[in-house]
Amino acid sequence: MNTRTGITRRHLLATGTAAFGASAALGLSSRRALAQSKVSFQLSWLHSTQFAGSYIALQEGFWREAGLDVSLQPGGPNAPVEPPVVSGSALIGISAADYTAAAVEEGAPFRILGVAMQKNPFVIASLAGNPVNVPGDLEGKRIGMALANTPVLQALCTLNGVDIDAIEVVPTQYSPQPLVAGEVDCLLCWETDLPVAMTIQGVDNVTMLMADHDYAVHSQTYIATEDSLANRRAEIVALMAGEVRGWEAYRADTDAATALTLEMFPDAGLDLETQKLQAARQVPLMFSDLTDANGFGWWTDETVAANIETLALLGRTVTPDLWDRSILEEVHGA
Q: Which CATH architecture has domain 2-119+217-332?
């Protein structure tokens, strides 16, 4: 995979109007400023439009204008987020409230600084001819999922008064194939991957977003250590301010953001149409009335309370001070 964090001058000359077109479509400026501080930003997974707002911030110089030389580090199955953030080699990482809670229980001094996904992306995906529209529809169904996600299913059932013993759990690989082949009736997955793959293949499917049924776990969250907050606060504010600008530009034109992603990572094996659909499906997960009123990444005491309730069902005990909104308040001028 190509893990470059920007497009070289040679690449820009070679691609010409294609590279310019993605930026122009986003309505972004070409201003540049000299970088002052090297900063590593740890992503939670491999490069894709899941992180396109960050790519925009990097490519369009939003961080460079603020004096940051940001390196985006891809995650993946062998690249967990938490270790580089704990060690200080990454200033900020992309995680999720349940992973952060587990790390804090082990002594990691993390704080959640922002919430990119206002709604958790977990869904129950099913075929249109045999849909799961509400949690109660799961009873009597066969659900394909990784057994490691059993606490997630249990939490959903507890929150909605569903008898988990009336659901047949079938261990499956993370693929739409078992559902398409009729081996299971539904899948536990993310809104932005297996359902997208089925749609691209022409398979008529429906999704039930678990967040719409009280499953509240903040996802794609920004984490930093207490030490970094105390000693590198200005850099964190600048990095988060660039993120906000990048994701607002992403929201304005997800197709242009997707084009930029494929330009920056041409060797990542990304399919254009799949990435475009994934990018579009992320928007309602990341933006809401709450973010429209307060700014990207925002949360409230009420959403934190809902997270604490759901995390308790997942066996994680946290307190509200795990979330620190002071960085976002500075970024958004609250």
A: 3-Layer(aba) Sandwich (3.40)
